[in-house]
Please model this.
Amino acid sequence: MSDRITVSVIKADIGGFVGHSSVHPALMERARECVASCGDLLVDSYVASVGDDVNLILTHRHGVDCEAIHSLAWNTFRSCTDVARSLKLYGAGQDLLKDSFSGNIKGMGPGVAEMEFVERKSEPIIVFMADKTGPGAWNLPLFKIFADPFNTAGLVIDPSMHKGFIFEVLDLMHNKTVEFQCPDELYDMLVFIGAPGRFCIKSIRSRTSGEIAAVSSTQKLNLIAGKYVGKDDPCLVVRCQSGLPAVGEVLEPFAHPHLVAGWMRGSHHGPLMPVSAKDSSPVRFDGPPRVEALGFQLADGRLIGPQDFFADRSYDLAREKANLVADYMRSHGPFEPHRLGLEDMEYTTLPLVMEKLKDRFVDVK
Ligand code: F6R
Ligand code: MG
Ligand code: MG
Model:
């Protein structure tokens, strides 16, 4: 048996209860039944939700991009879609963009974040899951966690982190990746990751040990579907401690509810509010966008947990700030910068209105 363990987080919106706000308990139950019935394919699993998304947190010995694991997730989502249809839940099967499974779930709608590693003597991980936003939402917190000494004391104090981290960045438009050695190339990297609608941090490795430290889900649904089909509602897995940022350093950036793209109709900027699992349903204007953080200790691949980190009172202030910022942003109504810029509205009504009015535009004399 491989001494390597793989953590796969695979998520999809397969029907909302009510509207796009949360997941009905019957879907959660079906998802748990499906993953539990897979024999010894998995070491362990935990079925979580954030907003209207089901997140399957799976551990196994088969590496990333494993067909059997992806097929299990696909069949689970298909089966949950049947439940969603029977209850007439909203947008049943929304993220299952293809009719049949063809070996890998990537590019078929669901989001995937997977990493494989040798489990350390003690292996704390955090699974972040967000609703009503896209994968670029992780850029700012990941930058702070792995490159900002004002956030992560270990970058200065811990000799095993002092050399920094390698960031792999994906260009969503051209489907190319580029690596940056940080801190040496921080300023070059910021040119790109400061534009989170186009460039997303895909993975991060330690420069000291080469160990994988973080992996995010980075597909953009509208680029797959060719039209707006909802935001990607991304997930992220981060390993912590012993040469990697401490749990508290990994959670720290979320004390600042930064502005992300998403919210109502995937077309508005709003603050990312850190919430407990039970508070993860977006309400006001289908939002504001939310993030949940579930901590686990791995024990030979078993998921010991979760610890629902943002349930803690130390995130009350961030929530209050997020509510104030949400209120301020809402006051702009249909105006930028609350509403996204035109290029990000490409998959909404914009092309239709442009087409309708195109003959009414006259040259300026
Ligand atoms: C955003 C989201 C919701 C919907 C909105 C309209 O990611 O899921 O804000 O975009 O509720 O939904 P439809 O078009 O399904 O009526
Ligand atoms: Mg939905
Ligand atoms: Mg969602």
